[in-house]
């Protein structure tokens, strides 16, 4: 079930067609996944979202592509976005995630879910050692 | 502010002392961060939690230590656990996270926050291509 | 799938019948959506919930009816309630939400999802200018 | 820091005064906690909220008062509401929660945080045995 | 839909078989619910999770079994884990939860959802009376 | 406390200076709120975020400026982002939100928090009438 359905001739809109063409050439496949079909009713939203995905996830950078997808899965699980969990788990596998790595990823996500709730339940105060501004103040004090 | 305060002589309980000693020797430091002080009122909870952290985060495995901390940060942000965001950001830096990597990590977390909410708002249906059980069914059908 | 199923003759309970009658006359339709059928097993919970919906959403007030539904969608997306996203998107359309407004609503929700996670990740401190109690203190100081 | 500050003479509004008087007499104390002071700027919201708290939490019922507070803590932790975690932990202690029970409550909340995220990460399908409507269908089929 | 499918001969792995045997004998039933089938691809994760569930939920303790399940439902609803809501609602019913208790549980969860969001919206400051460390400071001051 | 501190001469980076200059001229004020100071360590992230805020929130459009801020508040409360709740409540007031409107906004957010959790707890199935794709199917069937 969905709150919106894509119209039949999405690519009759030239802005939509341009994004879809870019998705196909960037990913070297004809497959356009539902997320982009569903966003196409608002071409500006589609453009902005694809541009950001291409820049943040697609560009070579200091974090390798598989790690990026595992981070994306982690956020999607914690935010409880079913579509996103499915799509990024598939993407991580396509980028080489092994079953062993997947099991470890889940172990980290599960453990974080547990310790997050314990820290929240106890309202544990942040240690000074973890506060970046305290570090600055300490350094300043030591420097004087 | 906190819902609980650690008692003064936590380590007079031998189970607490054993965990704290293990934290100190595993991490090669005398510093025990607040999370463990706050959990110490229930020694069984303290033991189970530390054992799991040591096994999931501490052991050499198929995901490198820095990546583990970045995944932990991602979950903690999405779960909105202030203590956890602070402690794991500090841990990631201690394990070598650069400012460039930190900026990229935030870009991924922010983008995931955005696309997660868009997918949820539109209730985008999961593509068959992303469904692991569909893959099994397809393979079975092709095999027949 | 559901954790509960409505019994067959819900309206044989006079308290349930009274609420359903009020829903039908208030909304000028015979259609009772599932939310109310599912709550009917506990008549007190049904009454309290309907009374609050009628008062908060149904009454003429300083926020117009369409804006109310768009705010409701926003909360439902952020809380990730699938039923609620569906029912309030339908309600917003019934109250005149255009496709253009819907696209803009999603853009705001998506952007808020992104900046929310960035502010949480960085633990950005609240500016004094945004603190209502600071305003009071400043005014008091200036007045003296 | 707060987004709103209570005015000085809150009880000059007779609707506010009536609610505060009822809080004082119901709880047999002069202490009005901040939640009610902060809601008082909108008397209708204050009245509806206090009426619901009194009915759901205050009335004798099939769930005992301490259990109610522990359930309230659990929801507040999972929703990450700092004020609520503090106030209901204090309330649970006032109603007799022991340190042993508190430790166990945290263990359940932490475990649920973990298994919740694992079930979400794997998108585990709900067993038919847990579906209330399936039970109805099975019963109907067996009856025929 | 799921991100993972259990392999056909899960119990050919002796570690998986040992956990499944323990589930069957602990629960006195042959029924293994999906959660365990889905975790079995990573035997270490399966073992750790089952061990914790058995210790936290299964052992006799200061919180009775039905209350534990109701707390688990509350966390699962607030975390929005559909599988968990289904499985723990079924478990609570199996442990004797009446329709009356279920209605009251929902009333508490719904009310907490409301007051949680109000406290967050207003950023209500925590009363000193609810701060455990303040209590310690007050006691120390009075003692001197 | 914060996980990061802005460096002293942020505007010595020309990309940062360009964004800050644009913020000042767009908003006609010298005040740069913390969010932008904290994002400045990663100029690309700063640029992308400001560009999106300017386009989604700043441009004249089919949703009026005050309604946009109220929607932003609603998302920020549900996502529990303290910084965001503070900054957008201040922005809504600057755009003319009255106390009456603020009270009603809170009433909607609180009610949505409650009904969201009830719908999730009961796993209420979405009515066909709320499913956009069902509408399409119905229309197609009627057309034939």
Which characteristics define this entry?
69% helix; 7 helices; AhpD-like; 0% strand; mainly alpha; 2 domains
Question: How does this model look, in words?
Answer:
6 copies of one chain form a homohexamer. Chain A is an all-alpha fold and 144 residues long. Chain A has 2 domains: 1-59, AhpD-like, CATH 1.20.1290; 61-144, Up-down Bundle (AhpD-like). Helices cover 69% and strands 0% of the residues of chain A. The first copy, chain A, contains 7 helices and no strands. Chain A has helices at 14-27, 34-39, 43-58, 65-79, 82-94, 99-122, 132-143. In chain A, helix 1 runs parallel beside helix 3, helix 4 (65-79) packs antiparallel against helix 5 and helix 4 packs across helix 6. The longest helix of chain A has 24 residues, at 99-122. The termini of chain A are far apart. The mean pLDDT of chain A is 93. Chains in contact: A-B, A-C, A-D, A-E, A-F, B-C, B-D, B-E, B-F, C-D, C-E, C-F, D-E, D-F, E-F. The interface between A and B is large, with 67 and 67 residues.
């Amino acid at each position: 079930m969905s709150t919106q359905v894509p119209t039949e001739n999405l690519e009759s809109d030239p802005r939509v067609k341009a994004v879809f063409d870019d998705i196909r050439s960037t990913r070297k496949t004809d497959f356009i996944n539902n997320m982009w079909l569903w966003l196409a009713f608002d071409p500006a939203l589609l453009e902005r979202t694809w541009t950001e995905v291409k820049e943040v996830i697609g560009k070579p950078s200091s974090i390798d592509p598989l790690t990026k997808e595992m981070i994306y899965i982690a956020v999607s699980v914690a935010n409880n976005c079913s579509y996103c969990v499915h799509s990024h788990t598939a993407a991580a596998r396509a980028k080489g995630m092994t079953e062993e790595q997947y099991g470890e990823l889940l172990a980290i996500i599960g453990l974080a879910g547990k310790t997050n709730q314990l820290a929240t339940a106890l309202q544990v105060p942040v240690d000074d050692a973890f506060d970046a501004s305290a570090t600055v103040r300490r350094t300043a004090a030591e420097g004087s």
